[in-house]
């Protein structure tokens, strides 16, 4: 119903505006016409110069438009086009030859003009928010000739606004926030509405803001649209969020104005206005006495109605010595206080503790003046646990002499079960710390005894671990470190500090120092070492010793008659004795070599052979000479060996495979030096040489046709048959040179004292050949003759 009333009011105002628009143009025409007539009269009274007879008379028509600035009402929807205005010129004196023409924006589509009367009508419904004004051009032309009677003139038609657009909140819905407990008038947020109507014309765009929902908590300024707190003491913990409905109304908020609404969600932000509160006033925790250091023993919780940083609390223990035993830390995830141990608990010494714990907010608020806190009491009851035995000392130190007998008691350890049951304790040695099983322990009384002999020089310290366990509960184990020091006895004789090798100059003087000697002893007496030296031969004719008073001696020569030719090396036994209890001694031998020295006493050579060398010949030169001699001997031996190998006759044993030792004689003139072994691979593949072999020394008269290759059996080549075929071909081929074997003898050489070796020129068979003469030519030809003779005998058999 309110919307229908608004529509009826709008129709009423539209009708009144139409009556006003229709009446105003006609009522304003009379003064305009009078003004036009006065303008025409003023124009006629202006004096004009008369043109000369020879000049062309030029005249200019005077413009005589008469109209108002035109307006048209937007959103008009009558049955007929609305009259916007009328154009008139003083040239229009009732003549029918005048024609009004309209051009420009919307001419012909939105606006139409009566050609005769000049009335302009709006043909369509206009919207000022789409286009506020139109620029058009009017002109008067002659109806018959369509020639312009006056220049065109421009005018504007403005669309008058009506209140047809409600206010809109473009950015809505809105969200705002304000701290809880804020004072009245505290700003929350600001909203903004816009109206598409003309803000200049009338009050169509003048907005007024008000709150439809959200009172009495909030208020809004009618003009600035700032939302403010209207109620003091709003508590977030009671209500956190409010929904406020804001209305914006145009026409200055008067009746008939259009309105728009939006919502604003106002959230109260938290401040630290609530203290932490323990869920209980007192807590009781039962903690076993064997709880490890740093392990949690219980949790407490102080709740806070605030949120975020305002709800975070820290926990502390106040008062008493309990702070040395316990500590409480804050769990960042759950905001709980975790009670932990700083020191071990002992049920036998103290059975319970009373603690006071305080929970305090971390963050203070400037409004409420915090921080807030709360406290609670905690009773810790220590529970008795089956604990492992406790040694009287965490570590033990014993000592034993290295010559101690087996089963000697070194020391004893002791442990006690401090539980109420006082269980009996058993002792063991951790064999991972005593791999050699050097020691044993009595399981009942903890006495440690020696199991193997000791040697201080091998191991001075032995560190073992002893464990103690309860008889009835072997899982309760405690450990103690036992360090055993091996004490030294004098059981090692002193000896030379190093292997000495002394050099004595032939030209030395009596009393010269040959070598300084010191000794070492593996033992380590508390007073330090003192060594005594003496020669094994008391009255040594060549050498003597001198005490340097620093546990060292110097060996001296007694005379200057030492010669390498006489004796090159001297062995001097020296006895070294310590002052231990009992004293220990050893005999060490010093090797003294007699050497040739320079006048400055620098050793040059210590070999007897070097003495007989020519003067000026060094050792390097001697080595070079020996190397050259050896090289010459090697060359001579190689030469002789090669000569003997070259003169050896060709001896082939009967049991050797003849096929692998066929000798090829390509040139008889070269003699035996031109021979080389025949490759047996040729006989393994006879098909590979089945081609025609021409003679190299003469041109044959007849052409010998190539023969077909002989195919061997699957198991290889029949060599005997292959040779027989070649021999038969050689005997019956007049163009081929004679063949003694499968090789070609294209050139037999010149000047051979043996003459031609070939006897295959005749057509006789192999049985007619006699090879006995070959035996007279030497061992190699003798073997050749035997080969052919053996072949004939094989054929006959």
From TrEMBL:
It comes from Danio rerio (Zebrafish). Signal peptide: none annotated. It holds the Pfam family Cadherin. The keyword Glycoprotein applies. GO terms for biological process: adherens junction organization; calcium-dependent cell-cell adhesion via plasma membrane cell adhesion molecules; cell migration; cell morphogenesis; cell-cell adhesion mediated by cadherin; cell-cell junction assembly; homophilic cell adhesion via plasma membrane adhesion molecules; morphogenesis of an epithelium. The lineage of its organism: Eukaryota, Metazoa, Chordata, Craniata, Vertebrata. Keywords: Calcium, Cell adhesion, Cell junction, Cell membrane, Glycoprotein, Membrane, Metal-binding, Repeat, Signal, Transmembrane, Transmembrane helix. One of its GO terms (molecular function) is calcium ion binding. This is Cadherin-8 isoform X1. It is found in: Cell junction, Adherens junction; Cell membrane.
């Amino acid at each position: 119903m309110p919307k229908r009333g608004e529509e009826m009011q709008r129709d009423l105002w539209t009708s009144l505006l139409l009556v006003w628009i229709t009446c105003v143009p006609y009522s304003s025409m009379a003064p305009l016409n009078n003004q036009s007539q006065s303008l025409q009269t003023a124009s006629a009274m202006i004096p004009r110069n008369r043109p000369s007879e020879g000049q062309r008379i030029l005249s200019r028509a005077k413009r005589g438009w008469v109209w108002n600035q035109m307006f048209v009402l937007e959103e008009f929807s009558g049955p007929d086009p609305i009259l916007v205005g009328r154009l008139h010129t003083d040239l229009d004196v009732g003549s029918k030859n005048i024609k009004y023409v309209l051009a420009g924006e919307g001419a012909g589509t939105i606006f139409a003009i009566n050609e005769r009367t000049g009335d302009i009508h709006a043909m369509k419904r206009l919207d000022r928010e789409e286009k506020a004004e139109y620029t058009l051009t009017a002109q008067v032309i002659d109806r018959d000739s369509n020639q312009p009677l006056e220049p065109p003139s421009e005018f504007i038609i403005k669309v008058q606004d009506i209140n047809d657009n409600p206010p809109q909140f473009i950015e809505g819905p809105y969200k705002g926030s304000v701290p809880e407990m804020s004072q009245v008038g505290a700003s929350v947020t600001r909203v903004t509405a816009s109206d598409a109507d003309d803000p200049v014309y009338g009050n169509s765009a003048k907005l007024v803001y008000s709150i439809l929902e959200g009172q009495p908590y909030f208020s809004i300024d009618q003009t600035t649209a700032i939302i403010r707190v209207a109620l003091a003491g709003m508590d977030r913990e009671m209500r956190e969020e409010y929904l406020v409905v804001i209305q914006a109304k145009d026409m200055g908020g008067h009746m008939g104005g259009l309105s728009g609404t939006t919502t604003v969600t106002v959230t109260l932000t938290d401040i630290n206005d609530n203290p932490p509160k323990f869920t209980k006033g007192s807590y009781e925790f039962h903690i076993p006495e064997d709880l490890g250091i740093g392990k949690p023993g219980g949790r407490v919780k102080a709740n806070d109605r605030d949120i975020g940083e305002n709800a975070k609390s820290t926990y502390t223990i106040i008062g008493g010595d309990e702070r040395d035993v316990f500590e409480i830390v804050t769990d960042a995830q759950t905001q709980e206080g975790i009670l932990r141990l700083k020191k071990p608990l002992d049920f036998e010494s103290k059975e319970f503790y009373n603690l006071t714990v305080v929970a305090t907010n971390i963050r203070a608020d400037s409004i409420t003046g915090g921080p807030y806190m709360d406290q609670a009491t905690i009773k810790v009851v220590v529970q008795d646990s089956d604990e492992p035995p406790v040694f009287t000392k965490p570590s033990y130190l014993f000592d034993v002499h290295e010559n101690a007998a087996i089963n000697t008691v070194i020391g004893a350890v002791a442990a006690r079960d401090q539980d109420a049951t006082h269980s009996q304790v058993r002792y063991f040695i951790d064999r991972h710390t005593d791999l050699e099983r050097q020691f044993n322990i009595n399981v009942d009384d903890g006495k440690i005894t020696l199991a193997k002999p000791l040697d201080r020089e091998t191991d001075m310290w032995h560190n073992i671990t002893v464990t103690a366990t309860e008889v009835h509960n072997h899982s309760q184990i405690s450990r103690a470190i036992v360090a055993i020091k091996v004490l030294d006895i004098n059981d090692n004789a002193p000896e030379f500090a190093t292997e000495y090798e002394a050099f004595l100059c032939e030209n030395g003087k009596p009393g010269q120092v040959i070598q300084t000697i010191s000794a070492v002893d593996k033992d380590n007496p508390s007073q330090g070492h003192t060594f005594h030296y003496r020669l094994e031969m008391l009255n040594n004719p060549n050498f003597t010793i001198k005490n340097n008073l620093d546990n060292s001696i110097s060996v001296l020569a007694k005379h200057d008659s030492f010669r390498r030719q006489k004796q090159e090396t001297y062995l001097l036994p020296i006895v070294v004795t310590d002052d231990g209890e009992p004293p220990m001694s050893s005999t060490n031998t010093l090797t003294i070599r007699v050497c040739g020295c320079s006048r400055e006493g620098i050793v040059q050579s210590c070999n007897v052979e070097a003495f007989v060398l020519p003067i000026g010949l060094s050792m390097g030169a001697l080595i070079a000479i020996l190397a050259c001699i050896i090289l010459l001997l090697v060359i001579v031996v190689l030469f002789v060996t090669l000569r003997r190998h070259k003169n050896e006759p060709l001896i082939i044993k009967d049991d050797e495979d003849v096929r692998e030792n066929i000798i090829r004689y390509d040139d008889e003139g070269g003699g035996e030096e031109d021979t080389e072994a025949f490759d047996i691979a040729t006989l393994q593949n006879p098909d590979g040489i089945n081609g025609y072999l021409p003679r190299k020394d003469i041109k044959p008269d007849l052409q010998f046709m190539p023969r077909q290759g002989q195919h061997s059996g699957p198991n290889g080549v029949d060599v005997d048959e292959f040779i027989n075929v070649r021999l038969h071909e050689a005997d019956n081929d007049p163009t081929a040179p004679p063949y003694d074997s499968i090789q070609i003898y294209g050139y037999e050489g010149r000047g051979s004292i043996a003459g031609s070796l070939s006897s295959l020129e005749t057509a006789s068979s192999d049985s007619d050949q006699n090879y006995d003469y070959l035996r007279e030519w030497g061992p190699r030809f003798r073997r050749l003759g035997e080969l052919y003779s053996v072949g004939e005998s094989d054929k006959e058999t």
